Amino acid sequence: MSTVILLPPSEGKAPDGDGPPWPGAGGAFPELDEARAAVRDAVRAVLAEGGAPAGRLLAARGPYLERALAEWEELDEAPTLPAWDRYRGVVWAALAPATLDRPARRRLIARVLVPSGLWGLVAAGDAVPAYRLKMGASVPPLGPLAAFWRPVITPLIDRRAAGGWVIDLLPQEHAAALDPAGLAASRHLRVALVDEGEGVGRRAAGHAGKHLKGMLARAILESGASTPTAVARLAVPGLRSEGTRRAPGGAEVVFSRTASGPEVL
Q1: How many domains does the chain have?
Q2: Cα three-residue angle 6-9-10, rounded to 5 degrees
Q3: Which structural domain, as residue segments, surrounds residue 233?
């Protein structure tokens, strides 16, 4: 048995790279290349229209849209970086992969998988170019990308976990690409980070929750935690564990953000 940790990609990405272009870079899931090409071609067909359709699809405008369009034009020839180095958003900045010790880095490469609107699923060490595309996008004629990828990547995640736990740290947008009921051999561990406050009740942690999620992912990798009980026992500044409970197909661990949690700008 193994353990898989699911993390989201990020809109913030490092530019450039020094690896080979993605079509020849290999990776953990070469069987996805045909579907990736289908998404690429469908996106490019929309981008060729220009104007509002391109901006809506890439959820960008102004200089951000210009940069995104340039990245799409160069996608097949652009240099790559490992996914762990390409993603630079809040979650990945808090995880700080480059500063992990050797055992934790090995776990990062072996265990962390990233559902992606363009790539379907990548391992942390897979080479990817700079790009912009949300999992929540709908691309004609493929439709919503989460629904397009769900039946394709769920069995790959199940195979990679090999009967162990799938530790799910995904936001709703990316969690929609996973079918927990399709994890025939493995068990789904949903990890939720919540805020509680007077007048607002209980809700998913906001922007600061992304930073805490990255810190929690780092703690999982550093400790080697691979079960619900082990994850629930982790000590992460700014989080209080509420323990484990059974959930359909597996278990859930809830962490609530404490008053001493970090303020992330």
Answers
A1: 1
A2: 145
A3: 4-257
